[in-house]
Write a structure and sequence with these properties.
single chain, alpha+beta, Aminopeptidase, five-stranded mixed beta sheet, 5 strands, 25% helix, 32% strand, Gcn5-rel_NAT
Amino acid sequence: MKTFENSKVTKNEKLQRFELAVEEDLAILEYREKGGVYSLVHTEVPVPLRGKGIANFLIEQTLKQLEREGHQIRPLCRAVSAFVERHPEWERLLART
């Protein structure tokens, strides 16, 4: 069983990023917000944790939270863009302008 799947993704508004604590490390998804549109600019998973699905989990949980809050996204990060391409159901959050 993956140890992070019961972890909670939190929004750190001061640092403008979503965070996922895994073991003793922190995976992050940085954003810039303007007018309710979140530009998702960078995803980073510490090297020892890569290849375990953590980035996908972080992205999915972030998108779920933004959807609950009624926001749209601009996926400027390659990882987020690739995730949305693989999961077209998330295209509903894409900002149109």
